[in-house]
Write a structure and sequence with these properties.
Mean pLDDT: 83
Low-confidence stretches: 50-56, 345-358
Strand order of the largest sheet: 1-2-3
Structural class: mainly alpha
Shape: elongated
Distance between the termini: 58 Å
Number of strands: 6
Helix content: 40-55%
Radius of gyration: 28 Å
Length: about 350
């Protein structure tokens, strides 16, 4: 049976671990009655009496630190709450929730303590050969599990992270699963078409998409960052200053006079004077509704015969232009590029602005 020891004003529970070693853990209770109740709810005496404490010492410690019996499902919710407190993006948190609950459900770990999770459970889930999941997705799933178990270890619910040394078994994956999807980019003509049809005189006039396509093409900004763009993001002349929702990092990207002209055409909302497009900001901030914007852009592209493209392809186009510019610099041809531009022999789209991070 466990023994209660008072240290200062707080009672600690002392019990035998593997090998007969005495382990003490605080109950955080200041009265003996509360301490006894805590030990009872944690089930320490039952485990010790059953001779199971040697292999379940970690569970006992975890129960006490968690304030009672802690299931893995409850631990996941505590982890996700910590992610919210750490201001991670809602989309990232939702992905973690989906992956972690899928892991617990497949391996039947919902009702067991975190200490019951083994490396075998993780390998079986990550390397499940019955699913067509690709390498990249499996790696993200493993990162999510590893992050959750790191949190559990930090909380003292487990001794070590069993996912620490686990890797995705590439040899068990097919060629298609190993291959990444080829990046698709918008062409100059497709961007011009998109801008024309969404302009005030266009057949699909839409102030938001007209501005979003122009800014996305010039800066490579994600749709979520454009939809939630604030007026203050354009306080510095000639730059789009953005605190990225995905990474919480700050970027400053040059913008053209065209973006400045479009900014002057956007009315300030009386209900939300902080954001350029309050309606889109609300949608993109809602995990359950955010996909509506991507779907809307997909329908627009379909109407103008742009197939197999998403808004993110504008970001790929921006990255490709930067890559091409980097090659020119490496070959010593960047000055030639600038001279050709000054002489009017190349278009504005070929010029690649320098990305400034801070």
């Amino acid at each position: 049976m466990s023994t209660l020891i008072k240290r200062g004003n707080v009672y600690h529970a002392a019990f035998k671990s593997e090998g007969g070693k005495i382990v003490t853990v605080t109950t955080k209770a200041t009265t003996k009655e509360d301490a006894r109740r805590f030990v009872k709810e944690a089930g320490i005496d039952e485990l010790e009496a059953a001779g199971q404490l040697g292999s379940l010492t970690n569970e006992v410690v975890g129960r006490i630190k968690a304030g009672g019996k802690l299931t893995t499902a409850k631990a996941v919710e505590k982890y996700l709450a910590a992610c919210v407190a750490n201001t991670e993006s809602a989309f990232t948190i939702d992905n973690k929730r989906v992956n972690l609950h899928a892991f617990l459900r497949q391996q039947r770990l919902d009702s067991v303590p975190p200490s019951a999770i083994s490396a075998d459970h993780i390998r079986a889930f990550i390397n499940d050969e019955s699913t067509p999941i690709k390498l990249g997705t499996r790696q993200v799933m493993l990162i999510n599990i590893r992050g959750f178990l790191r949190f559990c270890a930090y909380q003292g619910w487990i001794h070590a992270n069993p996912a620490g040394e686990i890797k995705v078994n590439r040899r068990a994956l097919s060629h298609d699963q190993l291959e990444t999807e080829q990046r698709k980019t918008f062409t100059d003509d497709q961007v011009d078409t998109s801008l024309h049809v969404t302009s005030p005189v266009g057949v699909y006039a839409n102030p938001f998409w007209h501005f979003a396509v122009q800014l996305g093409w010039e800066t490579g900004a994600r749709l979520e960052d454009i939809a939630s763009a604030a007026w203050a993001s354009f306080n510095e002349a000639g730059f789009f200053i953005c605190h990225l929702r995905k990474t919480n990092s700050r970027i400053a990207v040059p913008i053209s006079d065209k973006v400045d002209e479009l900014l002057c055409e956007i009315p300030v909302s009386a209900k939300d004077k902080a954001h350029l497009f309050p309606e889109q900001h609300v949608i993109i901030s809602d995990v359950r509704r955010r996909s509506a914007l991507s779907q809307s852009f997909g329908r627009l592209c379909k109407r103008i015969d742009i197939t197999d493209k998403s808004f993110h392809c504008l970001r790929h186009a921006f990255a490709e232009r930067h890559r091409q510019h980097a090659v020119l610099v490496a070959l010593g041809l960047d000055l030639v590029l600038e001279r050709l531009h000054r002489r009017g022999e190349i278009t504005e789209q070929v010029r690649v602005p320098t990305l400034r991070t801070a």
